[in-house]
Every structure is written in structure tokens, then in C-alpha cells.
Write a structure and sequence with these properties.
- The protein has nine helices and eight strands.
- It is of the alpha/beta class and 259 residues long.
- The protein has one domain: 3-Layer(aba) Sandwich (Rossmann fold).
- Strands 1, 2, 3, 4, 5, 6, 7 and 8 form an eight-stranded mixed β-sheet that branches.
- Helix 8 runs antiparallel to helix 9.
- The longest helix is centred in the C-terminal third of the chain and has 17 residues.
- The protein is globular and about 50 Å long.
- The chain starts with 7 loop residues before the first helix and ends with a strand.
Length: 259
């Protein structure tokens, strides 16, 4: 099972997708679910290019702190530049199953679009439980790509592209089993929310514009012919130009509470 690679090019693409209104609203939904308070210390697991950390900073204020951890050197460099003038934000190199923090460090932990890519979700959840204070809470956000609706003039080709793309996940069904895994790691179930990414139009300010780019790169790496990829993408661009476009994907925010 091949993973997405977040080299310099991949990191820049993630940075770009994080600037569109769709992903800004997503981050706002995660922050609402996490319910941060002034003075709290919060950890972002898989902090990427640093947008979420930057936006959580004013929520905890100068008496609080935001830490981000990521395995990608490219992501850490981008995030550090983005937040270099923010005194209460710091980034660290680290792995979700070996967090570089002492027990009971954080009031809250969040992670967005990360856990479905981890080979050891139970181990990562136990690490989150370890670094949380008691009481504390974690908000985990992820997507179930099997619930994606994407209009196409060739449904068979679209089904093939989606099937290949599904292989980039370690755990395709994670949103369905996450509450069980949280409970097994010692958490009590908290609130939950559904966040829908919905694009009835296609342009450079829409989430799915960048999703197309991710699909193109990943599916090519998995042996899908360039001819099929180009035909698939061109069809979506044509549907966008004619006003007949439709993209929708279901995302989920789960809260676990450490008592």
C-alpha cells in the first residue's frame, strides 16, 4: 500500500489547499469542536504547513501555547516560517506513536486528516492519552473517501479512479471504528460532528480543485495510465466550465475525553 509523499512539492500542494475557503471553514469547525480556552496548551498531531496551529494561537492567548508535531521536514519548515512571529506556537519533529512530550502535558490534542494514514492507530491514541492531562480531550478529524460523490460523464472511469485512490489510506474505514478505538485507548466518548466538503462549482478557490491534483499524482504512481488520468481530469474541468459540476465528501470530527 503506497502512501502519499509529502516532499517539497507535496507540501506546497497541501499549503495551497489549506488556503481555500472550504478548508478554512473545516479548520473553524475543528476549533469549535475542540472548544479551546485561554491559557490552555494544545497539541496538533500532524501539523502540516501550520495553518491550524496559527489559527488556534489566539484562542489560547499569550498565556497558552500551541505545539505542532510532524514527521515531514518540508512541512515543518513551511510551518515554522508561517508562524515565526507568533510567540506561543512551536513545532517539533516527531511521530504520532512516539510523541516528544512528557505525560500530562496538554489540555487538548487535535489531529486533522492524519489518523487514517497511520499504521498503528491504537498506539497513536495511547500516546495521545498519555500526553493529555486529566481531564483533557482530543478531537480527531478524518474523511471517509468511500462516501464521496463526484459527478462524471464516465462513472466507470470515476469508480476506478476512486478505487485506486482509496489505496493511499492505511485504514479506509477509520471513521466507522474510531469511537471504539478511542474507548479502547481509555477515552470516554464526547461530542461528534459531520463536516461536508461540498463543491457545486469548480475553480481554483475550491477544495476539489486541489483534490484533483492529488488524485492525478497518486494514481499515476499506482500505474494508472496518463491517458486515463487526463481524460478523467479533463471531464471534470469540462463539467466545471459548463456549470454541471458536483463534488461532495463526508468528514467527521470525533471527541474523546480523558477523565
Amino acid at each position: 500500500m503506497a502512501k502519499l509523499e509529502f516532499d517539497d512539492e507535496g507540501s506546497r500542494l497541501v499549503e495551497a489547499i489549506n488556503t481555500v475557503p472550504d478548508t478554512i471553514r473545516r479548520r473553524q469547525a475543528i476549533i469549535r469542536a475542540l472548544n479551546l480556552k485561554t491559557g490552555e496548551r494544545v497539541l496538533d498531531v500532524g501539523s502540516g504547513p501550520g495553518h491550524q496551529a496559527m489559527e488556534m494561537s489566539p484562542m489560547v492567548g499569550p498565556s497558552g501555547k500551541v505545539d505542532g508535531v510532524d514527521v515531514s521536514d518540508s512541512m515543518l519548515k513551511i510551518a515554522s516560517v508561517r508562524c515565526e512571529d507568533i510567540s506561543n506556537v512551536e513545532f517539533h519533529e516527531g511521530d504520532a506513536v512516539n510523541l516528544p512530550f512528557a505525560d500530562g502535558t496538554f489540555d487538548a490534542v487535535m489531529s486533522s486528516m492524519v489518523f487514517e494514514y497511520l499504521p498503528d492507530v491504537p498506539g497513536a491514541l495511547k500516546e495521545v492519552h498519555r500526553v493529555l492531562k486529566s481531564p483533557g480531550r482530543v478531537a480527531i478529524h478524518g474523511c471517509h473517501w468511500g462516501a464521496t460523490l463526484w459527478r462524471s460523464s464516465d462513472p466507470e472511469r470515476m469508480a476506478h479512479m476512486l478505487k485506486v485512490w482509496d489505496n493511499h489510506l492505511e485504514d479506509r474505514q477509520l471513521p466507522q471504528t474510531l469511537n471504539t478505538k478511542l474507548r479502547d485507548a481509555g477515552f470516554e466518548q464526547g461530542d461528534h460532528a459531520v463536516h461536508v466538503m461540498f463543491n457545486p462549482i469548480l475553480n481554483e478557490n475550491t477544495y476539489s480543485h486541489y483534490v484533483i491534483e492529488f488524485f492525478k499524482g497518486y494514481n499515476a504512481s499506482q500505474g494508472v495510465s496518463q491517458e486515463e488520468i487526463d481524460a478523467w481530469a479533463d471531464d471534470l474541468y469540462e463539467l466545471g466550465a459548463s456549470g454541471d459540476y458536483f463534488f461532495s465528501s463526508n468528514e467527521y470530527i470525533m471527541i474523546g475525553k480523558k477523565l
